[in-house]
Amino acid sequence: MNDDVAVDSAEDVNTIDEVGGHDDDAGNRISGGTPLAVVTYLVHSIAGEPDAVVINTEERTGSVRFQIHVAPDDMGRIIGRRGRVVQAIRTVVAAAGARDGVQTNVDIADD
To answer: Cα(90)–Cα(25) distance, rounded to whole angstroms?
Structure first.
């Protein structure tokens, strides 16, 4: 057993210590950073032409809107039968947004 590293089992590694009542990194964060990473990963993974994927973000107070542009051949893949794939993307991105305290809206652009 390695005694060099001590881990306190009561300590949550996902918490942020605030010094002086404010978060020093708050100015460095992108609003909706986690949902953006999630939507980017999902759409690039599903698309047949991931290089053609463009995701535009529009930030509003407390919410972020993602507009997804894909190659015409990938529209069916992203939308899915009866919109099931895009609905699943919206659900997962909304969960990621809830983690950051931001509401999300995911739209597919039909260019």
So the answer is: 28
